[in-house]
Each structure stands twice: as structure tokens, then as C-alpha cells.
Design brief:
This protein is an alpha/beta fold. It is 31% helix and 19% strand. Strand 2 and strand 3 form a beta hairpin. The longest helix is centred in the N-terminal third of the chain and has 14 residues.
Amino acid sequence: MLLCCDWTLLRLLPPLRAAWARKGTQATVPITGANAKRVLFGAINLRTAHRVVLIRPRAGAAEAQAFLRELRRRYRTAGTIWLLADRASAHTAARTQMLAAALGIRFLWLPKQAPELNAMDQLWRELKRLIAANRQAASVDALASDAADWVLRLTPQQARRKAGMTSKHFWLRNLVEDFGFYRVCCWQTEIPNAAPSQRCCSRSSPSASRLRRHPR
């Protein structure tokens, strides 16, 4: 199973985006001055477009580990879960990596500063444009709940389109189409002082640019 995962920060103070207004006037966005925050962890299945979202108060290693447990809970019967992710400190933390190994989850690292490669990141962009921008919610919890509902209520086709997965330029298009017949090669995850059983087949760090397909 191949998933893209990412987290996004939601603030009660709304982000400003281009908006319509009467000619000669400036659009206004009423705010209260409060600026609480919530973090949404999310993942999208690159084959089925199924999504998992977890709301947390922050984006630390403990929260990332809670999300890994949620992924395994949602995909109990799946084999290895391959997780395309960035090298955020919460992901690379030794405890996060050890938990991932215990849960049968393997990280595949995306290149630095390449959000366009992460389908979940593209979905967050649409979320903020449509749900969070130019208006302040009644509370940060209401905002987070509405945001999670928006992600989860999309049809698979809507999710694929908004995440950029239907584009002919989507960089994993061929891999996703063939995923039922191939597996992604396992690349070593760098875990400090890791036991040999926690390591994979390559001596180099896993990278999305080095994904391979191997016949079963």
C-alpha cells in the first residue's frame, strides 16, 4: 500500500486570498484577533484515493507517532504501508522510526522543498483556499472539524483531481497504475543505533527519486 502523508497548520486567524469586491472598494475580512491553532495530519492512498485525517494540537514527534498508529488501525489487514513523506524532524525522530518499523510502515523520503511531489500537500492547498481563507470560523475546533470533513467527504475522483493525481504530469502516475502488479523496493531508513532487523536492503537513504518497481 502506497500513501502520501503530510500535515498542515490551521490558524483561527484566516489566510488572505484574492477575493471579489465591489469596484472601487476593498474586500474586508472581520476577525476577532484570536489566533489559536490546530494541526491536521493527513494521508491519501495513491491507488484508491482513500483518505485518513487526524486532528492534533501540535505537530511534534508524539503527534506523528499517533498518526502512524491511526494509519495502522485504519489499514489493519494491509501488509507493509509505504509512506511518502518529507524529512520533518517529527518523521525522522528515532522513536518515530522505531514505531514505524514495529507497525510495518516504511518511509520513502521526498526531496527537500518539493511540495509539488506530495499529493496530500496539494489537497491542503485546496482546503485552505476553500475552507479557511478570507473568513474566520467560530472557533479553531470548528475550523479543524470543518476542514477534516471537507477532506473526507470528497469523492475519490474529486480527491484525485484536487490532489493533482489525475494530471498527465503526475510524477507517480505510472507507478500508481501498475501498483497492483509491482511492489516498491525497500530502502533503508536511517535509524540511529538501529538493529539489523530494523534496516532495509539499501545502504543509502530512501528517496522518492530512487523508487523502483520490482515484479512480485
